[in-house]
Specification:
The chain is of the alpha/beta class and 298 residues long. The protein is 47% helix and 12% strand. It has ten helices and seven strands. The chain starts with 7 loop residues before the first helix and ends in a 12-residue tail after the last strand.
C-alpha cells in the first residue's frame, strides 16, 4: 500500500487563511482589492520573504525602522525591537501597525541587547509568536559623541556592552533558530569603522563587528547560516543632528553624497535574498561613493 501522505492542501488553506486575516480585517479591503482575496494571496506568495520572519534590533526609528519596513514589503513578518519605554513604545507599535496594514504579522518586543536576559526573552517571545526565525538584523547602536580618551567608565561599558557584546549575545541567542531555517545575519556598520573622527568612538566598535562578520561568515558556514554587513555612509537620522555640530567641515560635503535610511535598507534586504547567496562574510560599503573622495572629519 502507498504511504499515507499528509494533507498538504488542508495545511495550505489554513496557512493562507491565517496570513489573510490582517488584510480581511481592514474595513477598506473591498475598495483596495476589488479583485478579491486570491490575487492578494498570490501576490504575497510571489514575495521573496513570504512566510519568513525577521528580527531587527533597534527598529523603532531611523535605519532600523526603514529596514523593518523594507523587509515587510518583501513579505517578511517582523519582530520589532526597542530599547526602553516612553516614545520608543509608541513608535514601535506604530511601525507594527504599519506592517500589519501590509498584510504581514508584527510584534514589538522591548529589550536592551546589552543585557543577556533581555536578549534571551526577546528571541524567545519573537520565535514563540512567529514560529520561526530566518533573519537577524543587528542594527541597534548607542554611543556618546566624544573622544575615546574622554569617556567615563559608565560610557565605556555601555559602548562595548551594546555595540559589541550585545550583538554577540543576539547572535548566540538567535543561532539555534537560524540553523533550522538556513538563516541570514546582517550587521549594520558605518564609515566610522574605517575613517577617523575625533568624536565618534562608536567607529571602533563597528570595526570590531566587521571582523566578527568576516569570522562568522566562515565559522557558521557548516551550520547553514550566513553573515554579512552593510557599512553605511552619512545617513540623515536623529543622530546626524548631533554629528553636524561636532564634525568641522561637514557642511562642505555635497548633498548628493548623503544617504536616506531606505537606501541602506535596500542593501540589507538584498543581502537576505537568494540573489546574495554568493556573498559571505563581507561588509558592503553603501555611501554614494563618499569614501572614494577621501573626506576627513576633523
Amino acid at each position: 500500500m502507498p504511504e499515507e501522505q499528509p494533507d498538504h492542501d488542508a495545511a495550505g488553506k489554513n496557512r493562507l487563511i491565517s496570513l489573510s486575516l490582517p488584510i480581511l480585517a481592514r474595513a477598506d479591503f473591498g475598495q483596495r482589492h476589488p479583485g478579491g482575496l486570491l490575487p492578494v494571496l498570490n501576490s504575497m506568495e510571489n514575495q521573496p520573504f513570504f512566510g519568513k520572519v525577521a528580527l531587527v534590533t533597534g527598529s523603532s526609528r531611523g535605519i532600523g525602522l526603514a529596514i523593518a519596513t523594507a523587509m515587510a514589503r518583501e513579505g517578511a513578518d517582523l519582530v520589532v525591537n526597542y530599547r526602553r519605554s516612553g516614545k520608543s513604545v509608541e513608535k514601535a507599535e506604530a511601525l507594527c501597525q504599519q506592517i500589519r496594514d501590509m498584510g504581514r504579522r508584527a510584534i514589538a518586543v522591548q529589550g536592551d541587547i546589552s543585557v543577556k536576559a533581555d536578549v534571551q526573552r526577546m528571541v524567545k517571545e519573537g520565535t514563540e509568536a512567529m514560529g520561526r526565525l530566518d533573519f537577524l538584523i543587528l542594527n541597534a547602536a548607542i554611543a556618546p559623541f566624544k573622544p575615546i580618551e574622554k569617556l567615563f567608565e559608565k560610557e565605556l561599558k555601555q559602548l562595548v556592552g551594546v555595540n559589541y557584546t550585545g550583538n554577540i549575545l543576539c547572535l548566540q541567542a538567535a543561532l539555534p533558530h537560524l540553523e533550522k531555517t538556513d538563516g541570514n545575519i546582517v550587521f549594520v556598520s558605518s564609515l566610522g569603522s574605517r575613517f577617523y573622527n575625533t568624536s565618534y568612538p562608536l567607529g571602533s566598535m563597528k570595526a570590531a563587528m566587521e571582523a566578527v562578520v568576516r569570522d562568522c561568515g566562515e565559522s557558521l558556514r557548516d551550520r547553514g547560516v550566513n553573515m554579512n554587513g552593510v557599512c553605511a555612509g552619512l545617513v540623515k537620522t536623529d543622530s546626524f543632528k548631533v554629528l553636524r555640530q561636532l564634525w568641522e567641515g561637514i557642511e562642505q560635503i555635497p548633498e548628493e553624497l548623503f544617504l536616506q535610511p531606505e537606501e541602506v535598507a535596500d542593501v540589507v534586504t538584498f543581502l537576505c535574498s537568494p540573489s546574495a547567496r554568493a556573498i559571505r562574510g563581507q561588509t558592503l560599503v553603501v555611501d554614494h561613493g563618499m569614501s572614494n573622495r577621501l573626506y576627513h572629519g576633523g
